[in-house]
Amino acid sequence: MSMEQNVLMAFGLTVFAGLATGIGSLMALTTKHTSKRFLSGALGFSAGVMIYVSFVEILVKARDALVEVQGEKLGTWTAVLAFFGGILVILLIDHLVPSYENPHQPRRVEEMAKETRDPKLLRMGMFTALAIAIHNFPEGLATFSAALSDPAIGVSIAVAIAIHNIPEGISVAVPVHAATGSRTRAFWLSFLSGVSEPVGALIGYTILRPFFSPTTFGILFASVAGIMVFVSLDELLPTAREYDTGHISVYGLIAGMAVMALSLLMFL
Q: Minimal CA–CA distance to 94: which of 230, 216, 189, 198?
């Protein structure tokens, strides 16, 4: 596969992952009940995929690339610092992004029937969409970078991020529909909140392309691992537990790790 084909595939996977917010929006606007078991298991599965591949594959590849250029000690230190640097980026975004309420607080489609036409809900939906869009920016770069380095890993991460974006779509669509009564407006605002993922990929690739080297790759890849681990622990697992009715989220987590491990073994 040529470099151009790799870039197109990586960008396509990022678009797929980002626009999955629209799936969440459609679920909220076309169904009467939230499938809590499905969402809990799916989010746990997504977290399992991302945590396993981050520690077992992505961080290891980043360290190997950096050690080859910088030597054992400095390369390992750089990889570890870049990993926590990725976490720091998400932490700063969490602290700086304005939000009316927690943008990752689970919302249920049943709430649409309960909530009245309160203008404050529109503000909540708008701020939630903004917060999710900004959160999705580094996730888009993470998905794109992983897919560019290894398409097989990229597919797994894109699916995991897409699952992660489904409840985010619900969290935007529910308050906007409740405030305006417009399903169309609720869908498009939710859908567009995911566009920042491919935008993040494009901007990141454009900025980093002239400076791309084994060192840049190693630092970026280690940062991607940090971003995905933080997203899994701070967003996916807590949300999965909110929807959980037993141990479904944990079973999903283990299944995600097992599927990711099997997929990596198949490409040895």
A: 230
